[in-house]
Write a structure and sequence with these properties.
This protein is mostly beta strands. Helix content is about 10%, strand content about 55%. The protein has two helices and ten strands, in the order αβββββαβββββ. The chain is elongated.
């Protein structure tokens, strides 16, 4: 997470220095794209990184029953922005998100490393609907907050598979889930485009786990709920 933040600050600083020179912090900087935000509708695209995790709630003996190891995934998508008023916009950001989480189980019934480890590879199509609250623009910089809801379609859910963890390496999840999202970012105005790095937290609202066919399965028997937690870092270009 610290590396992600460092990348944002470094990239923002390098781009700002290259494009703005020293005028960005001066009293009277050269104003780029002065009327860009007055458009009723504008479009863009984003590239970025993600870090997905799970939040587990257990039926009995709460504790470190499952260890989830996060990996860094990749995001790409489109941005549609509708101006509602001077400091408020409505945004639709459909995107494709690749990620993987490695789950290690501590159940004593699982003896081998193969039995203890489940690799959860996911390809998501993510549909967030967000409100963007922008501060007053200062020169060529404008910070903002984001918040809203989203629906996610898991293309690798294995929801229709009959085999489960006990009969094979088959981790099953629900196809659709709902989330709420909160984040912040900054708009940087260049001569020919607007660049917006942002960071956003995603919090699942629904249990996503499909239980194994055996009630007391060491993989799913003690899980009350399993919900997504994720961090998105996106670099948006308009």
């Amino acid at each position: 997470m610290k590396k992600f933040l460092l990348y944002i600050f470094l990239l923002s600083g390098l781009l700002g220095r290259a494009q703005f020179g020293t005028d960005v912090f001066s009293k009277h900087p050269i104003i780029n794209m002065e009327n860009f935000d007055k458009q009723r509708v504008h479009w863009g695209y984003f590239l970025g990184f993600n870090s997905y995790d799970f939040k587990f709630d257990y039926k009995v003996n709460p504790g470190v029953d499952i260890i989830a190891k996060k990996t860094t995934g990749f995001n790409v998508g489109l941005v549609g922005n509708l101006r509602l008023m001077e400091n408020l916009d409505l945004r639709l950001e459909p995107g494709l998100y690749y990620t993987q989480r490695n789950l290690t189980y501590n159940d004593p019934r699982l003896l081998t490393d193969f039995e203890k480890l489940r690799e959860v590879k996911s390809t998501y199509i993510h549909f967030p609907l967000l409100l963007k609250f922008s501060a007053k623009r200062t020169g060529n910089v404008r910070p903002y907050l984001l918040g809203g809801v989203s629906r996610t379609w898991n293309l690798d859910s294995n929801a229709d598979a009959k085999d489960d963890n006990l009969t094979g390496d088959r981790f099953r999840m629900k196809k659709w889930t709902s989330n709420y999202e909160l984040g912040f970012g900054v708009d940087l105005y260049f001569e020919y485009f607007k660049f917006s790095p942002s960071i956003r937290g995603v919090f699942g609202l629904e249990d996503e786990l499909i239980r194994d066919n055996t009630i007391d399965s060491p993989y799913t028997g003690n899980i009350e709920s399993m919900k997504t937690r994720a961090i998105f870092i996106n670099f948006t270009f308009h």
